Amino acid sequence: MNNQDLLKIAEEFGSPLYVYDAEKIISQYKRLTSAFNVKKLRIHYAVKALSNISILKLLNSLGCGLDTVSIQEVKLGIEAGVNPSNIIYTPNGVSLEEIEEVVLLGAQINIDNLSILEQFGTKHPGTPVCIRINPHVMAGGNSKISVGHIDSKFGISIHQMPHLLRIVKNTGMNINGIHMHTGSDILDIGVFLHASEILFDAAKNFKDLEFIDFGSGFKVPYKEDDIETDIEDLGKQLTGRFENFCKEYGRELTLAFEPGKYLVSEAGKFLAKVNVIKQTTSTVFAGIDTGFNHLIRPMFYGSHQEITNISNPGAKPRFYSVVGYICETDTFASNRRISEITEGDILAFSNAGAYCFSMASNFNSRYRPAEVLWYQGESHLIRKRETFEDLVKHQVPVDLHVESI
After folding, report:
1. Residues 339-360, buried b or exposed e (16+ Cβ, 10 A)?
2. Tens of pLDDT along 296-336?
3. Which residues bind pyridoxal 5'-phosphate (predicted)?
4. What is the DSSP letter of 376?
5. Using CA atoms, how far apart are residues 241 and 46, in angstroms rounded to an integer?
6. Which residues are catalytic?
7. pTM of the full predicted structure?
8. What's the rounded Cα separation, in Å, for the pair 146 and 141?
9. What contacts 84, CB < 8 A, 6 or more positions away?
10. Cβ distance 268 to 352 under 8 Å?
């Protein structure tokens, strides 16, 4: 998928627009599965990264399961043809009623707090349950995406293991899995392996496990020469340790991961048209036809996303601040070196596959963009651009007869 392909797609479907390269998703999946040479490996794609049904269908065709955090994501997976037995459901702070609804759908339940664990175990002792452990390991590229530390709301503290075991014993629960997720953008595999040892120790407390789920958080490159998780080195080291644990445990378990960003981030491009070039006393702004309502990661996480002028890639670079059309400050890049931009040019944002469209909104009553899947040289529309009718179809107008003042 080169610049000319992207320009043709933008011309056909308009902007702003999300475009996903199916071949990149496939190659990332194959790279991950090749890195872990174990007898039983299960990959559950984190649906929250990008939940379009066509993406779920693509991953399902590769043999990938799903990691979900809501009953709606579970239903999306089933709608995409995924067998519920290949879906793990790991909510946070939801009601017992929602968890019970998911049980009826047939997904694997993963519980991350003692209160719900006891309530669920008391009512449904025979239902297989995975337990999410908080290993108290600080990992991740940003405080907002580090979820395994001691102050995190996620998981059951490793220090609460005695209480956890008492609940399991008293209810007679069926614990078939143990799980952790320490954060996203993990670069140091030593930290990941350290957390894994904590999980192995916790797993020894349960005699009927079928799988151990190590979450994910693998870092992908965001710019040229950027560093990333050495997935092959991690695979080599963790595979050996996992096999040794299975021998100690006395049974072959399934090694599970839940990658989201790793599978889809680099596959995505976000295309936007330049509406205006605005020169001030100190800055040259490139104002584009979108805002943080469509791509919030730079504003929310401070993330870096490469921006390329695909209309004029060979021009002399200049420095621009790329900004959106929202009524509050929405700056995608400050003083960024980009090939000379003119009004009407198309800019392409890289790493737009994960947590981009899925976090889009209708702020300022703007329409959410269309989505396109690129596969074997052809573009496929997988989500239509919203219209005014979409904005109002769920609103219920009420005529209030208020006397004028």
Report:
1. bebeeebbbbbbbbbbbbbebb
2. 999 988 889 999 999 999 999 999 999 999 988 899 999 99
3. 217, 355
4. T
5. 25
6. 327
7. 0.92
8. 7
9. 74, 77, 78, 105, 106, 107
10. yes
Tens of pLDDT along 352-403? 999 999 999 999 999 999 999 999 999 999 999 999 999 999 999 998 888 8
**What structural domains does the chain harbor?**
22-264 (3.20.20.10), 268-352+369-386 (2.40.37.10)
Give first-to-last CA distance, the chain, whole Å.
61
Going by C-beta distance under 8 Å and a sequence separation of 6 or more, which residues neighbour residue 118? 167, 171
Helix and strand element counts for the chain (H, E): 12, 18
Tokens 């220090």 label which residue? 159
User: Residues annotated in the binding site for substrate, as ranges?
Assistant: 297, 301, 328, 355
Which tokens go with 256?
């599970």
Task: Band the pLDDT of 21: cuts 50, 70, 90.
Answer: very high
- CB-based contact 16:270 (threshold 8 Å): yes
Cis bond upstream, residue 221 (ω within 30): no
Spatial separation of the C-alpha atoms in residues 54 and 318, rounded to whole Å: 38
What is the DSSP secondary structure assignment for residue 325, as one 8-state letter?
Answer: S
Binding-site annotation: residue ranges for pyridoxal 5'-phosphate: 217, 355
